[in-house]
Specification:
The structure is a homodimer of 301-residue chains. Chain A has 301 residues and is of the alpha+beta class. Helices cover 43% and strands 26% of the residues of chain A.
Chain lengths: 301, 301
């Protein structure tokens, strides 16, 4: 039987629990929960971590519904009968303390319009402050493995989508080493039934915790110099620039009266800017900047 | 004789010198200069300060010209014959070290289209980390005095314009205590000749240095607690949010291939975010948040 909104919502709620449990255990700290209601219908459960290794983390679950805001109707090019919506998902950004641990973002979501249209979306992408090619390759391999179990076209297609989406034109830089990004997956265009698309989205969600925890444990005890700590602030500054200037979800939320604190949970605890920063020639900072390019075939090594 | 673009440009260049000299003397430090060329025509002189009291400051002069970019033509609703432009101005943002000294922004500019249309724009606005009503009133009085010498309608009109412009809808907060903002001042609509409009714009530019230096000297030796320093980071975070999400000039520059380092000189050296920060009841932080409202009549005390 095709999964209905109740089943999908229950899964996302459970996924938030699973991920928070895994991160809590790995970090040795506990999340603080903040439940909220949406005036137009539904609500969410924000969980925030100020941990031992994760300096600022947010793991959000939400399930909201109601009348479709006019701006959303325009951007979705809805039919006249599609007047209300149901949306549920889990959204995560983690900013680690140690500069050698990457920033990570994950999102899985389901969207339904009355009238019957629905789709799944999501993705995971990694933003190392210092790019380590071997670790970036391993990260991409985890995503590829998850994708390949459903469709061998998915990884190349969704990897390119992430490259194009997580890009800062004003810096001519990608946000990090990318990952996968997908949206509007629906049976008609994917030649897959709703159950399979849901399973794929769930599998992406479940790839997150073991993948990130491995990278965190691998790097979190590395020593950090003062220069490296400043570099972390500058890279977080770029993260802020992407999210506030280019991220369509953030922009849409902030300009359509979304819940500001949930939307801006993605911002780092501390970020910095220096006028016209230039990395030292041959440095790891320069190497990182040179790696922030689209179309790098990470898994090929 | 009406001032031509050469005279206006020469004045702005000199204004940058005057302001840098005054700030250098007050801060006891010197600016670093970075001249740049614009590929399409013209260029600028960025001056950057990492000083004793000003933690990160930028005083930019630029004079650029060339073919009008399509996005600019659309937003200006140009006539077919208006294909190229000339623009010159001075733009300043200063982020002080001490939380008791406010952040300040100033801009004066002149814009000309071939075909003969031209206008002046500018403004000064203040963003205290802690609002001091007496100092805010004094600041507004300086702007009012400058305005009143040209037109007693200017201060109320341009004060309201600043309130509306420097506003964060997603926070329901003004950026700071406002100031004045004006744009597209031209003889036909203002019933003033070009010389008078230029003199007014120049007077606004010359109001900047003595006004800010007074506020800086008044507050810069105040002790700062750790909690106050964190509050400064959070307020700087809001400054980043305004500039990257709402400021039309920043958005326009970043999405039309403007010079990124000049546009983002306005960002603070270090800014912070905390999930759902709530000020302590009755605290100066709460009082400040309650003061960040439109339509406060500061000069009336």
């Amino acid at each position: 039987m095709a999964p209905n909104r109740e089943e999908i919502t229950a899964f996302f709620r459970q996924l938030q629990d699973e991920i928070c449990d895994a991160l809590s255990a790995a970090d040795g700290s506990t999340f603080v929960e903040d439940s909220w209601d949406r005036p137009g219908g539904g609500g969410g459960r924000a969980r925030v971590l100020r941990g031992n290794y994760i300096e600022k983390g947010g793991v959000n679950f939400s399930a909201v519904h109601g009348e479709l805001p006019p701006a959303a109707a325009r951007s979705l090019e809805t039919q006249p009968e599609e007047t209300s919506f149901y949306a549920t998902g889990v959204s995560i950004v983690l900013h680690p303390k140690n500069v050698h641990v990457p920033i990570i973002h994950m999102n899985v979501r389901y969207f339904e319009l009355d009238g019957g249209r629905f789709w799944f979306g999501g993705g995971i992408d990694l933003t190392p402050h210092y790019v380590d090619r071997e670790q970036a390759a391993w990260f991409h391999q985890q995503l590829k493995d998850t994708c390949d179990a459903y469709d061998t076209d998915y990884y190349p297609r969704f990897k390119k989508w992430a490259d194009d989406y997580f890009y800062l034109p004003h810096r001519n830089e990608t946000r990090g080493v990318g990952g996968i990004f997908f949206d509007r997956l629906q049976p008609a265009t994917e030649q897959k039934d709703k159950r399979t698309l849901f399973d794929f989205t769930a599998a992406v969600g479940r790839t997150f915790a073991p993948t990130y925890i491995h990278l965190m444990e691998l790097n979190r005890e590395q020593p950090v110099s003062e220069a490296e700590a400043r570099w972390q602030q500058l890279r977080r500054g770029r993260y802020v620039e992407f999210n506030l200037v280019w991220d369509r979800g953030t922009k849409f939320g902030l300009t359509t009266n979304g819940r500001t604190e949930s939307i801006l949970m993605s911002l780092p605890p501390l970020a910095g800017w220096t006028y016209d920063y230039q990395p030292v020639e041959g440095s790891r900072e320069e190497e990182t900047l040179n790696s922030l390019r689209k179309d790098v075939n990470w898994v090929a090594g």
